[in-house]
Every structure is written in structure tokens, then in C-alpha cells.
Amino acid sequence: MNKKVRYNEPALTTAHAEYLIRRMSRELREGAIPHLDLSPFGHLDLGAIVNLLAFVFAASEGRLPYKRPVQPPTMDLPIDIEVRDFLFKMEFFHLTQYSYVSHEEVIRGANVLAREEQAANSRRRLDGRYPFMPLREVVSKVSEYSSPADFESHCRKFISSLQNTFGVALESHLNFQTELVEEFWLPNKEIVENIYMHSASWGLGAIQCSERGALICYMDIGQGMRTTLDNRKEQLVKLLGETWNDNLAIRGAFVRGVTSVCGSSRGIGLAKVRNYVSECGGNIECRSGSGKVVYSANGANKGWNVEWIPGVQIRIWLPAPVKTPS
């Protein structure tokens, strides 16, 4: 039995993604094949897609706490050609089947889209809702390489590629000053390194730019913050005064100097990113296990429980600099 999820809203947000994840989790527990109807959406929030990617990958790899699905989730393709292109670049189609869209429907839809593409592109240039640069850079698991040296080489290439796109996105598209971009990249680099140092999983980094600002997202489906910081559990419970759970582990990861690597000088990445983003008027959403914490521009944080997904998923919103009159 397949179940459909459909929305009438034009934008797929992280709130929508949480609903979809809860719905698909329930369907998997019931033995159903989850189905996603993304056809109504004219814009996809990168953070929402990253969270859905994490869930679908975790399900397909048997990392969720219930029976592995007999086949991938099915999906209705988005009608919007640019949204399809965005999903294609995120390799989302590799994880889903199209049992609800026939070949004839795809051909017919492509012909209609081709006739409307020029007018649609004109509208997109005006409304600024569409990403200039969707990017997906993937770091693989160490087990996929013949030696640790080969894996380290791959990770260095991954970081270099992401750094280049990071700079182009923030400098060229959003006019951030070069020195600020370089300063902001250093703690982001530590986040990327944490994927392959601690997660025991592959991971990805992605950037989505609009005229309003940039979304920078990272993801893995590995151990998660609670497991990674378990050796600092007593310290964090005493420091933050809460029960040890996924939300507390996330808050602990944002405390400067907290790291799972004893004797290391690391542990500044997330704390520095939080401070930088707050100063720029942005926000950070961090999801790990069954916890989710949002750090707002004023420095406040709010946490709540969500459907369990392994690993860590981070969404950073960085607004574009305010243009000063010449």
C-alpha cells in the first residue's frame, strides 16, 4: 500500500520536511512504501532537501530503528523544470522511484515546460526565489578506500572543492568582503572535517544562493552528536544543567572548546559559526538524532524533539550584506 503526501504551498520548508519525515516514519513502521508528492512546489529550501536526503538514505541503508523498506520511496516529480534540476543536482532521484509518473506523462510535461520555459525564467529573474548555485559535494566513507591515505586525499579534495564554491557563492553572488569570507570559512572547514573524523559515515556539503542570502548545509548519517560527545556527558550536564539527551548534546556541541578529541585545540567550529551568523543577522538549525536546536540572530536558542534520524544535519542561513547607498 502506498500513501501520498501533498501540499498546496509553493515552497518546501524545513517545517514541511519534518512533517514528511514523521509521515514516512509512520508509514515504514506500518510496512507501507512511503510516497512523496513534490509536484506542487516551485521552490525547495536546501535545508529541507538535506533533511529528506538524510532520512531516505538512512532508510535505504537500514539505519532507522524499524524494518528496512523493500523498495525506495516513490515520488511525484515536481512540475517546475528548475526544481527538477535542483533535485537532480542533489542526486535525490537516485533514491526514489517514479511509479506514479508514466513515461508519457513525463514527455507531455517536458513539452509543456519547454514552451513555457522562457516566460518562467523571466519571472524567476524578477522574484529571486530560485537558487543561483545549487551544489552537492560528497565525502565518502573511509571503508570505501584502499588505504587511510587515499581517504585523506579524497577528503582534502572535497574540502578544496567546497571552499572554492563557498568563496564564489558569498563573494560573487552576495558581495561579502573577501576577508570576511575567509574568516567564516575556517570554522566551516572544521564542521566539514568533523564529518569524516567523527561521524563514521559519508557526508555532504551544499550551498544555495538567492538574492536574499545563502543557505549553507552539511549532513551525515553517522553516529550523531550524542554518541560523539558521550565522553563529555558529565561535563555538559553540569555546565548546561539539563538531562543528557540529543538536544543537550547539540547545545553542548555549540559550546566553545567542547570536542570529543581529548587534548585537542579544536572545538571552535560550531561556536564560531554561531557567533558569526548571529552577528550577520542569520540563524542556524542543527538536527541530530531526535533533537533539533535553532539559534536565532539574537543569540537565543530553542530546541524540540523531532523524528529520529542518525547523524547530524546543519542548516545555516546567512543574509546578504545590506547595500549602502553610493
Please state the structural category.
Answer: alpha/beta
CATH class call of the largest domain: Alpha Beta
How large is the share of residues in beta strands?
A: 15-25%
Assembly state (oligomeric) = single chain
Q: Give the number of helices.
A: 10
How many domains? 2
Q: Overall mean pLDDT score?
A: 76
The succession of helices and strands, N to C, reads EEHEEHEHHEHHEEHHHHEE
Total number of strands:
10
- Biggest sheet, strands in spatial order? 6-7-8-10-9
N- to C-terminal separation?
A: 61 Å
As a whole number of angstroms, the C-alpha radius of gyration is 20 Å
What is the CATH third-level topology name of the largest domain? Heat Shock Protein 90
Low-confidence stretches: 1-9, 98-133, 261-267
Globally, the shape reads globular
Q: Per CATH, which architecture of the largest domain? A: 2-Layer Sandwich
Reconstruct the topology from this structure.
Blueprint: E1 2-3, E2 11-12, H1 14-29, E3 33-37, E4 43-44, H2 46-60, E5 74-76, H3 81-89, H4 103-127, E6 137-139, H5 148-173, H6 178-198, E7 203-209, E8 213-220, H7 224-228, H8 233-240, H9 246-253, H10 269-279, E9 283-295, E10 301-319
